[in-house]
Structure formats: C-alpha cells, structure tokens
Design a protein that fits this description.
By secondary structure, this protein is an alpha+beta fold. It has one domain. The chain contains two helices and five strands. It has a five-stranded antiparallel beta sheet with strand order 2-3-1-4-5. Strand 4 and strand 5 form a beta hairpin.
C-alpha cells in the first residue's frame, strides 16, 4: 500500500511510527506517477495488511496523510485503488 503524505518529513515520521508499532519494515518512496496529483511526491510503502493499523497509527501520532492506495496487478498492469 502507498500512504501519500504532504512532505518527506511527514513520510519519515509515519514510517518510523509504523515500524515501531507494527514490527515490520516500511519504506519512504516516491509516489507512483499514476496517483501523484500535486504537491509532495513522497509516500510510505507498507504491507497492505496494515491498512486499519496505519490509520490508527497516524491518528494516534498526530500525523496526516492525503490518500491511501492499494496496488493491484490487473492483466500485467499496476492499478491503484483509493482506500482512504
């Protein structure tokens, strides 16, 4: 999943909070062009199973995000579903 955030700093904070609480890795990455609309181009990449947890982690730590996308492979193409 990609959690689109407003800045590189916000991405790092969310990444660290998620790793600390969930116990598995998260990554700060550039937002895929298919979902990058404007502003910051950073996202936190995290396992899809953490969807409900990451929303709680963001809220509990005062961190905001713009959108959350799940990436699927459909007929060999990457497709992104908004699950915010």
């Amino acid at each position: 999943m990609y959690i689109v955030v407003g800045s590189a700093t916000a991405a790092e904070r969310l990444k660290r909070a998620a790793e600390k609480i969930l116990g598995f890795p998260a990554y700060v990455v550039h937002t895929p062009p298919a979902v990058h609309h404007s502003g910051c181009s950073y996202s936190v990449r995290l396992d899809d199973r953490a969807l409900n947890d990451v929303k709680r982690i963001a809220a509990d730590n005062g961190l905001s995000y713009k959108k959350i996308y799940i990436e699927k492979n459909v007929k060999g193409e990457r497709v992104y579903h908004d699950v915010s």
